[in-house]
Amino acid sequence: MSLAPADEKLIRAELGREPSEAERALFENLWSEHCAYRSSRPLLSAFESESESEARSASDGHGERGDPWEPVVVGPGDDAAVVALSSADADSERGRDRADEVYATLGIESHNHPSYVDPFDGAATGVGGIVRDTLSMGAYPVALADSLYFGGFDREHSKYLFEGVVEGISHYGNCIGVPTVAGSVAFDDGYEGNPLVNVACVGLTTPDRLVTATAETPGDALVLVGNATGRDGLGGASFASEDLGEDAETEDRPAVQVGDPYAEKRLIECNEALVDEGLPVAARDLGAAGLGGASSELVAKGGLGAEIALDRVHRREPNMNATEILLAESQERMVYEVRPEDTDRVAELAERFDLGCSVIGEVTDGDYVCTFEGETVVDAPAEYLADGAPMNDLERTEPSQPERDLPTLVDGSGDPAPDALGSAFEAVVGDPTTASKRWVYRQYDHEVGVRTAVPPGDDAAVLAVREVESASGEPLGLAVASGSEPRWTAAAPYEGARAVALETVTNLAAKGATPLAAVDCLNGGNPEKPDVYGGFAVAVDGLAEMCASLSLPVVGGNVSLYNDSAAGPIPPTPTLAAVGTKAGVSAPPATLSGEGTLLHVGAPGGALGGSRYLAHAGGSDRFPALPENAPAVVETLAAVADADATLAVHDVSHGGLAVTLAEMVTEEAGVAVEIDDALALFDETPGRAVIETIDPEAVREAFDGVAPVKELGSATADGRLSVTVDGETLSHDAASIRDLRGVIGRELD
């Protein structure tokens, strides 16, 4: 990839001369889609990154939060977002000093192109990068969530990528001691030529430890800490800003970084020691565009400049030139702004953790200047480098709405085949996307750090934040959920993205948590194609609209475009990672106890657009209607989930009631239920749940005026699933369900 002629003309005019080789390469990377969001930034204003009362305070002209316990501390634009955690008891918060608070950091990033070229290292370095974004804020990483998307599971290449990505994530995460507690996996033909690897990280810090990526004082030193710089990852940012070629797995290998998780672990502990002593004034992870990207963005955010001597950078390869030193994306590196008198102490701590350390320059009030071997190789305004890229004004075409063309089993127009219902049930429950992901998460050490109270495999994970005590004396529970559903957004990008947001938040509510904040990873194809950009744009709008209606601030995120290949563009894929809080860490399981009544809460959408059922049976349909009062549904579900009479809660979404009920069955507990028809069995409308309770009347009262409640039947003690649909009964024992849902492990073990 090279600079566009129009960009080069702008740069030449700004500099008043021809750019040097290093400047040309630096602009090429920093003005790429991956770094500058040239096609997506105009769309991102749709998101609300403040809570409701913060927005009111801003509209009143105060410029600061009016309520001292509003959650958003640092919003979009930094390495990670920061939100305040309350004790989940509003009354106990009043009058407390903000210095007593605990903050959670949230970040998400994509490593899509690298994971296609080299699935192990591509995924591993994605984990490393988002963890370092957490370190940049002065936080300690406590949890990871990964959402992964691959081509059809029946294809050998998809399995190869899948196995490599999971191995890379597990290896890196396990070695650095950060548990992977949540996420999702989807298989769809749309990802055949371009898988997606989206990784989120949650960290914890306090107000006195908070660091940002904004340089503050001219004269402060710039210090590079971490691994030595090599030539790996050169041009990674520009590589991620163009379609994957058919020869990408060989030709683009040099653009993929190589990770060292043991160096990352030392960097995590070194960063903690630096923050303990208050040494970093500002910090930035070296990710896209390497040292040039991190250092120029650090000073640009403060309206400052820098003087950097590239000769001082500690290197592991000989004869590196200025451009290579500036743009290599070698991993496990951080750049810090440090007071001049503190540089020796930073070097001492780096040496303690066996990390390299170089004082490479200083913050200035001038331009961004880099020298190498006595010559100036870069001299440009930092803000122009970081924020000067012009935005793209792209054509878009609105996606069409699917027509209703349903199979006989659900449209009632004729007599379906005798085994149609049973075959459909087995196909949907055994679909790799809806099947058990135990093969994936059993490879992750999800218990390291001893915070994981609800592990992977549930609607959401729950972490114990012992630093915050709830009114009951229990630790604060922090619920984490992450995912998307490509068939929803392929069928109806706007409504499908709204459904993604609602489903993610419903997962939190099913564990009794109140949604707090979210970050998104917006994945799309080549935006220069009007139909691709049109679908992506309305998906962004849909996600933003539902998050706003749920009062869920989207406090940060990532955009990944040009996920396009010879196989075609990916479907618009807005991954949402969200956190919520609750008093205590106990939560109702998603599996049955065998002792209660089963209730379905929420309104079915009456359609099958984007469903797994249609993926197998064929046909098309409009997307289901979503509830108009989604916030009330979520709030009520969270309250009911925490009730003493509630024995189990599981959301209804992917695969509909068929998958929800199958997932709730265990060897000891089964279900005996009746469902109206096949459409109701496979309807995937989110914002619904199945609740096992010993007090069904209390659930009805709670949802009165909020959402319909229907009794499905009862839990049983025989470990069997018995579902009667319009007079036809499906019956499976726990072993046969386990076999259906075990397709991934069966194929790969």
What does it look like?
The chain has 749 residues and is of the alpha+beta class. It is built from 29 helices and 28 strands. The strands form 5 sheets. Strands 8-10-7-11-9-12-13 form a 7-stranded mixed sheet. It is globular and about 85 Å long. It starts with a helix and ends with a helix. The model is unreliable at 53-68 and 90-96 (pLDDT under 50).
Distance between the termini: 40 Å
Q: How large is the share of residues in beta strands?
A: 15-25%
**Unreliable stretches covering 5 or more consecutive residues:** 53-68, 90-96
**Shape verdict:** globular
Q: Sheet bearing the most strands, described? A: 7 strands, mixed
- The total count of strands amounts to 28
Average per-residue pLDDT, rounded, comes to: 92
- Helix- and strand-based class? alpha+beta
Oligomer: single chain
**Neighbour order of strands in the largest sheet:** 8-10-7-11-9-12-13
Residues in helices, as a percent range: 25-40%
Supply the number of helical segments. 29
Query: Which radius of gyration do the C-alpha atoms yield?
Result: 26 Å
Structure characteristics:
749 residues, alpha+beta, seven-stranded mixed sheet, 29 helices, globular
Short description:
This protein has 29 helices and 28 strands.
Q: Would you spell out the secondary-structure blueprint of this structure?
A:
Blueprint: H1 5-15, H2 21-30, H3 33-36, H4 41-44, H5 52-59, E1 72-74, E2 81-85, H6 90-93, E3 102-110, H7 112-117, H8 119-135, E4 140-150, H9 156-176, E5 180-187, E6 196-205, E7 221-226, H10 236-239, H11 248-251, H12 261-276, E8 280-285, H13 290-301, E9 305-309, H14 322-327, E10 333-338, H15 343-352, E11 356-364, E12 368-372, E13 375-380, H16 382-387, H17 408-411, H18 420-429, H19 438-441, E14 452-454, E15 461-469, E16 475-483, H20 486-491, H21 493-510, E17 514-523, H22 530-549, E18 554-560, E19 564-565, E20 568-569, E21 573-583, E22 597-601, H23 612-617, H24 630-641, E23 646-652, H25 656-664, E24 670-675, H26 678-682, E25 688-693, H27 696-703, E26 709-716, E27 720-725, E28 728-733, H28 734-741, H29 743-748
Parallel strand pairs: 4-5, 9-12, 17-18, 24-27
Antiparallel strand pairs: 1-2, 2-3, 3-6, 4-6, 7-10, 7-11, 8-10, 9-11, 12-13, 14-15, 15-16, 16-21, 17-21, 19-20, 22-25, 22-26, 23-25, 24-26, 27-28
